[in-house]
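User: Structure please.
Assistant: Input sequence and predicted structure:
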Amino acid sequence: MNAKIVVVGSLNMDLIARSPHIPAPGETVLGSGFSTAAGGKGANQAVAAARLGAQVTMIGCVGGDDYGRQLLSGLQSDGVDTPFVRGRGCPHWRGSDYGR
């Protein structure tokens, strides 16, 4: 029997810019690269538990933008149930509305 786990927590998209050094106060530095990485303590825990075979349901909030859709898609592709992931500013929006 698989464990049933509900995770209530954060879902974040990290925006990563690379630069040659840490800017001094007031200094502008040109970046040499940009990437994104899905995360958030809640999302990370949900994915880890799902990968270990648990039946996981995530409760949390994402933005109604492309990053939110990417976070939701990533959870779903790892087998996390997302019917209770909501979009900020959209009280009746449900993560499942994006479809699988």
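The CA atoms of residues 86 and 93 lie 6 Å apart.
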